[in-house]
Structures are given as C-alpha cells and as structure tokens.
Amino acid sequence: MFTKRKLKIFVDGYLLNKEYQGTKTYIIELYKEFAQENRDVLIYIGCFNSLKVEEYFFGIPNIKFIYFKSQSRISRMFFEIPKIIKKNKFDFAHFQYVIPFFKLKTCKYIVTIHDILFNDFSEYFSLFYRLKRNFLFKQSAKKSDILITVSEYSKRRIQKVYKTKKKEIFITPNGVSNVFLKEYIKEDSIKYVFSKYKVKSYLLYVSRIEPRKNQQAIIKVFSELENSDLNVVFIGSKTLENNILNKEYQKLSSNLKKRIYFFNAINEVDLVEFYRAAKVFVYPSFAEGFGIPPLEAAALKIPVISANNTALEDFSFFKPYHIDISDLVLFKSKLIDILESNNRHNLINIKNKIKEKYTWEQSSKEFLRILNIYK
After folding, report:
1. Rounded distance, CA 67 to CA 44, Å?
2. Among the listed ranges 108-122, 253-267, 336-350, which one has the minimum average pLDDT value?
3. CATH number for the domain including 211?
4. Closest CA to 289 of 308, 311, 267
5. Shared domain check, 186 and 162
6. In a shared domain, residues 90 and 215
7. Could you tell me if 353 and 207 lie in one domain?
8. Across the beta sheet with 41-47, what order do the strands follow?
9. Which residues contact 34 (CB under 8 A, 6 or more apart)?
10. With bands split at pLDDT 50, 70 and 90, how would you rate the model's confidence at 344?
C-alpha cells in the first residue's frame, strides 16, 4: 500500500461523457471500486463538465475532476493533457486505447487496449478505421509503461499483431456491478417492466446495434418459432448500421414485427429490471473483446445462450448453451429447450462462478498489484 505520500493518478475519462459501452463501464466501475478500497490514493478524472459524470462517483472523496477545455481529442492529447499531468505531478496516467503523443518522464503511462477486433474481422470496419487505430494502438502498446487488456483473447491478439511478446501484458477483466448480484423478486420486475414499457414474456438482448453483434441471428430464429408468445427486446444504441438486421426485420410479418421492441436509451434502474424480468438472454456476437451483458444476465440467474467465439470462449460455464451461434438450427433448439422446459440449468453455479472471477473488486485488486510493481 502507498503510505509515504498520497499516490496521484490521472484518468482520461472523456468517454464518460459519451453513450454507454464496455469501455465506459470499465472506467466507472474499476475506479469506483479502486477508490473506495484505496482511500490513500487520489484519483483525478479528466472529462467534460457534467453533473451526470459526477453522479457516477458520488460520495467518493478521493475522486476529483479536472474539466477539459478543448473539444478536439488531438488538441487534448498533444497539449492539454500533458500540461495537466505536468502541473499536477501525477505518478500514473491511465488511458483507454491511446496514450498522448509525447510522454513526461516523471509520470508512468498506463494504457488499456480492450480489443483489436478490427484486425480479425476487417469486414465490419472501414480501411481508414483499421489503419488509423492500428497505428495509434500499436504505438501506445509499445510506448506505454504499463499495458493492460481485459481478456486472454485480447492479450493473445495484441501480442501477435503488435509483436509485444517481450512486454508484459496484464489483464484486468471487466466484471458485474453489485446490483446484478442482489436477490430480487422476479414477479415484481415483470410487473414493473410491463406497467412502464408494455412488454413481457421476452427474449432480451443488450448491447450496441452493429453488424459484428449479429442481432440478425435472433430475428431469424424468432421468425421460425411456432406457437410461441415470446417477444424480443433489443436494448442498445445504433452505432453502426446493420443492414442484414434491417433486411431480416423487413421480412417479418406485421404480427411478428409488433412483438419486437427496440429501446435506444434506458436508465440504469430500468435496465436492471429488464434483465430481471427476461425469460432468456441471448448474446449472438461474432466477435467480442470481452462481453459484459451475458455475465450481468447470468449473475441475475437468467438463462443465457452465448456465442463461444473470441473472448466469449472464456465463458464455458454457460454450457450447454455456449454454442457456435452461426449454427441457427442448434441456436433454435437451445432456445426451445429453455422456453419449453423452463430449464434453469446450473444457474446458481454459474452465478457463483461469475462472483469468483468477474467482479470489479477482483479487478481493482489486480490493478493495485500492477501499480505496486511500477510505483
């Protein structure tokens, strides 16, 4: 533990002003837990002035805020952030994906590169997107003092693509927030969601809408279910146009379309209620650097059908519903199995495994261990 003087960490939190995604959750939950467990560490979060951002860390006295002036990320990385680091004499500065172009010798730079999926799944990303990010990510991986990622899959790919085998890559996994580990009364959640959103008896999907997330698999299988009263709920913002999803949706009858619900923005309280009230959660992504939503659902003891590719391969505890999601016949049979038999296969054991491995408390402890190596 840091006892001689208070350690000072700068966190580039510009993503906190943007929509929810895994990286934003990572910053919020990791530092909430880390700050509360390490009161002798001062954490300064750089972001744009926002009461909402401050609410994420309400009541945590050792988290403070530095508000950015420049709207340009290039300007911030070249000029504003280096000045902030120098002026405040930070011991560590933590960035997501990209560190500033010039480093100060008095501060150790941490970068968390969550994934480099655009290399293995180039069909989902433009050439400019891939070239730009590969250049920036590779430079950040090599120049950073501490390189972190969130899964074994991402670690392997970063090592191979950016040739960083001589450099240690640490893993601080994403986790589930405490609210997903609390007990609840399912009927109360079903009533709440129905009274406010007029939907019940549904399959749930939570994440951004974009091609690599493969939401179309849900539509295809849903259209083949016979004599079912199941509805489908998608919760997530549309970050990239998924034309295949759009085409599959347009093929549906008007009756089936009425049973599919899209919600772009749901507050945190209602999102948890949507999870709790779901009959089944499905995560059919083609590629993930981690994948928090299926863990959140499973922590609430909701049956989960998950793809078993990329970083999702680590979630083998979802078996027998941990599948090759491209096999739609298999997908359909597993979904019917859950719906018709009310199969609650191993749900308590799955929750316990998530509590053992995927909590922010554990990631915070690992983060502290890493800092102690380099202090």
Report:
1. 10
2. 336-350
3. 3.40.50.2000
4. 311
5. no
6. no
7. yes
8. 63-67, 41-47, 7-12, 92-96, 108-112, 146-149, 169-171
9. 41, 43, 364, 367, 368
10. low
Residue 17's nearest CA partner among 58, 89, 71, 82 is: 71
96-109 average pLDDT score: 95
Q: What is the mean pLDDT of residues 219-233?
A: 91
Q: State how far the Cα of 288 lies from the Cα of 310, in Å rounded to an integer.
A: 6
Q: pLDDT tens digits, residue range 172-206?
A: 999 999 999 999 999 999 999 999 999 999 999 99
Closest CA to 236 of 263, 273, 197: 263
- Amino acid at site 215: Q
Q: Which of 330, 333, 336 is nearest to 227 (CA)?
A: 336
| Domain coverage including residue 42 | 7-175+359-374
Tokens at 260, concatenated: 């599919």
Closest CA to 11 of 86, 83, 101, 109: 109
Q: Can you read off the two tokens belonging to residue 187?
A: 């009927």
Q: What is the pLDDT of residue 5?
A: 65
Instruction: Give 58: exposed, middle or buried? Use CB within 10 Å, 0-12, 13-18, 19+.
Output: exposed
Could you give the CA distance from residue 93 to residue 201 in angstroms, rounded to a whole number?
46
Structure token digits, residue 370: 């890493």
Q: What average pLDDT does the segment 4-8 reach?
A: 79
- Inform me whether the pLDDT recorded for 71 exceeds 70: yes
| Orientation angle between helical segments 152-162 and 127-143, nearest 10 degrees | 90
Instruction: Grade residue 7 by pLDDT with cuts at 50, 70 and 90.
Output: very high
The 8-class DSSP code of residue 121 comes to -
